[in-house]
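sanity check this:
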Amino acid sequence: MSITNEQELAGMQKASEAVACTLREMIRYAEPGMTTKDLDEYGAKILSDFGARSAPYLTYGFPGWTCISVDNEFCHGIPTGKRILKEGDLINIDVSAELNGYWADNGSSFVIGKDLNGHQKLVDASRDILKKTISHIKGGVKIADIGFLMETEAKKRGFKVIKNLGGHGIGRSLHEQPDELMNYKNRYDSRRFKKNSVVAIETFISTSSNIAVELNDGWTMVGNKGGYMAQHEHTIVITDGAPIILTEMNNILN
């Protein structure tokens, strides 16, 4: 969507606060021994307290309130009572929701407890790349140039990017134009970011794979060449200068 007045900005701020606070508290709550369903239900209560509704459930009938992916699961992991979190696990939580007609989206990868499996370097790369990416986005900047920046920064750190997942416009629904805000340079993409538009910008940084493939459950995605992936995501409003980070209170870049 494009922000045209203060009422729309306030609506986006409230929806963004709901998803950002939910993500922040879920990260704090997560610990070894709990199931991903326990974690999802905790997040569901926070969203409900805000009056917000799960975006993946509303839009796609997703079997959970939030997407929780563990270790080799890249994204869209289904919360379940069978998946028990362990010390050193790489976790990704993606929280998106609707509140009073406005939609917001954010996500973060992190390591549970001690970094027993050496995932922190990947997590740090994803976080740093999102921070640098957001600092370069403003009205008039070519979308493909931002993708090039993301891939270049990943390669510098010895990582790859997933080429079939990307950020997207958001606001009045979960996925809007501009869609396919990719983590690499598409030389056929001549689009530019527009001032006052709202986008969910996200990283997809990988150790081994460059394509995400869907499992038989119809939701969970893993890498075509295995390995691990980290994702960080903010909903932002594009301006002539630094973007307004609507989901900043999730603290994922700190």
